[in-house]
Amino acid sequence: MLQCEGIYRHTRSPLKAPISLLLVLVLLLLLPGLGHGEPAASGLPPGTPRHGIAMHGEPLEPGDFTHLPYVNPDAPKGGRVTLAMQGSFDSLNPLIVKGTAAEGVRDYVYESLLGRAYDEPFSLYGLIAESVETPSDRSYVEFTLRPEAKFSDGTPIGVDDVLFSYATLRDHGRPNHRSYYKKVARAEKTGERKVRFTFDASDDREMPLIMGLMPVLPHHLIDSDSFEKTGFAVPVGSGPYTIAEVVPGKSITFKRDPNYWGASLPINRGLYNFDTIRFDYYRDSSSMFEAFKSGLVQLRNEDDPTRWTEGYTFPAFRDGRVVKEELPVATPAGMSALVFNTRCPLFADARVRQALIRLFDFEWVNRTLYQGQYARTESYFVRSELSSHGRPADASEGELLAPYPDAVKPAVMDGSYALPVSDGTGENREGRREALALLDQAGYRLQAGRLVNTKTGEPFSFEILAVTRAQERLLLTYAQALKQVGIEARIRQVDATQYQQRKQTYDFDMIQYFWPVSLSPGNEQSFRFGSDAAATEGSFNYAGISSPAVDAMIRAVLGAQDRADFVSAVRALDRVLISGDYVVPLFHLPRDWVAHWRELKRPEITPLYGYRLDSWWIEPEPQQPEPQQPKSGQH
Questions:
Q1: pLDDT value at position 627?
Q2: Among 265, 264, 270, 330, which Cα is nearest to 70's?
Q3: Whether residue 330 has pLDDT greater than 80
Q4: Which stretches of 109-196 are DSSP H helices?
Q5: Is 177 helix (H, G, I), strand (E, B) or coil?
Q6: In terms of residue numbers, what domain contains 533?
Q7: 424 and 414 in contact (C-beta within 8 Å)?
Q8: Listed residue (4, 16, 6) closest to 327, CA to CA
Q9: Higher pLDDT, 364 or 47
Q10: What is the tens place of the pLDDT at every residue in 578-590?
Q11: Distance (Å, rounded) from C-alpha 412 to C-alpha 491?
Q12: Is there a single domain that holds both residue 354 and residue 246?
């Protein structure tokens, strides 16, 4: 029986990965204080229509830029690429909670008003909108639409489509859209091609960019009342691809639109080079790897150290048809963790959570399961300047955290906090001793080899959901460690659809999850860790965090007006989350592992956020000349 019963009944995309260390070093030299290139000085006052917008400071590219620096503007078009996904899908609508949407629809079919540049922390440039205008206080944002923008059926994109998209996603979209768009106090048409969003008093400086990233839907084809229904009706958007074929639950194929209206825009030049992109779905990672080895799949992000170090011995790799690349990482690693559902009474006590953190023997797990390849994750923003780990709080952080004196542990505040370290032998005696002491304080005792609640006599038992065999292997190792102190952790492997449904309704005790992080965390933090999200089904607040201190730090992140204040606010948020013991932090790869077939080529420059498959292309293998047949009478 689940501990949460009666209380509440998302694999990494192959589209992106981290970057070249050489590029990072160059960028760090170019921009003082930010680690990026010198932004273009506009000389324009706030409130003037601009070609782009940055979260802090100025966007890097000038108004007359011709293409992004990390693409090959002359990349050849053509060819077909097939990628692998694990699980299944039962919907083509990625903008609603219900169902599991097929991969790629949001990326290739629907477009936003502005497009993102992945070599900057958070900058957007004109896409459907040719310009963006916002005042210094960012109390509103106004977009001017391009007259040539159109949907794939040839219908021009108008202001009515933008207003319809906003209203539909606000009322019927995913919880993150509903949460973001409720900050819009007024949405209105201000000209033939102009639309303005005026914001409430929440002082959220990210909102102009959030609205710039809003997907634009065709008003003439969508019924808002039925928008939340799942199904396989083929959506129409304005993006570079249309959906060519769908095999429900098994594959989806996108075909490059030869009449794509935005192909020559600076934000798009050098991108979307494949004629066809297909996602095939597989039951497990082993099947995906076999498909890659045989050439059915052209690229994979490898996350299994054993496979990376020992599994690439097949003929196509030995003869050079498959290439392995280790790309240095320059963006935050994110938080990979075993997540406590604190809605469950069992995990409501922080001492219990602290005990289970001490019982995770990273050194042993890393050595025996992962060839010692992983580094421990000790921050929600590890591997970046946004991490608080190993850094004492600065004056700005102290001021932000002062109203919440009990929200941060002293060791976390002064930068001396570290996760427990074992000797790697698998004994973890010190961890067990500390864990049993904490559990004793929380009211649990060992009786006949079982840990029980001293008041109720109930055994300490819970369930961990798993969806892959790789997860199951890790979780079984952890369960064995818990068994040594009398805790029963049951591992239950379910299919991808059931796993998704149970995650969305918080019907679990513990899950393994990964929260990715950008260099400009913002509104998504509310959806992951905010109090409102804790009570909203479909959010990413799987831990059930409901903390006034967390909410206040997220507000500080959103309200920061310069990079220095922003960094301090993110670090303060990091300290509160670490101090809450909401997860068992796991590990991350110091480098990114990518394997691909040789005909896939990529630009020489890799952007700050990692490679973008959209900028790759197919270079056909040279044809070997046909052997000359001897003439008659010759040998």
A1: 53
A2: 270
A3: no
A4: 159-172, 175-181
A5: helix
A6: 335-588
A7: no
A8: 16
A9: 364
A10: 999 999 999 998 8
A11: 32
A12: no
Task: Indicate if 62 and 26 belong to the same structural domain.
Answer: yes
Taking the C-alpha atoms of residue 42 and residue 375, their distance in angstroms, rounded to an integer, is 42
User: Which tens digits make up the pLDDT trace of 379-395?
Assistant: 999 988 999 999 999 99
Same domain, 503 and 369: yes
Quick one: average pLDDT of 281-304? 94
Query: Which residues are CB-neighbours of 113 under 8 A, at least 6 positions away?
Result: 127, 128, 129, 132, 143, 145, 162, 211, 212, 213, 214, 216
Residue 404 lies in a domain: yes
Q: Which residues contact 297 (CB under 8 A, 6 or more apart)?
A: 82, 83, 84, 280, 288, 291
Give the integer Cα–Cα distance in Å for 567 and 563.
Answer: 6
Pairing of strands 299-301, 591-597: antiparallel
- Check if the beta carbon of residue 530 is closer than 8 Å to that of residue 541: yes
Confidence at residue 40, expressed as pLDDT on a 0 to 100 scale: 45
Residue at 562 is within a domain: yes
Residue in 566, 563, 564 with CA at minimum distance from that of residue 555: 566
The answer on pLDDT for 276 being more than 90 is yes
Domain count, the chain: 2
Q: In this predicted model, what pLDDT tens digit does every residue of 120-153 receive, in sequence order?
A: 989 999 999 999 999 999 999 999 999 999 999 9
For the segment 344-349, the average pLDDT, to the nearest whole number, is: 97
CATH code for the domain in which residue 310 is found = 3.40.190.10
Of 549, 518, 505, residue with least CA distance to 531 = 549
Residue 36 has pLDDT above 60, yes or no: no
User: Considering only CA atoms, which of 67, 42, 47 is closest in space to residue 57?
Assistant: 42
Closest alpha carbon to 520 in 167, 209, 105:
209
Same domain, 505 and 364: yes
pLDDT for position 158: 98
Does residue 230 come out as left (phi exceeding 0), alpha (psi in the -120 to 50 range) or beta? Answer: beta
Identify the CATH number of the domain in which residue 386 sits: 3.10.105.10
Rounded to whole angstroms, the Cα distance separating 368 from 133 reads 55
Please check whether residues 155 and 302 belong to one and the same domain.
yes
Distances (CA, A) of 89 to 16, 249, 325, 421, 497: 21, 5, 30, 41, 8
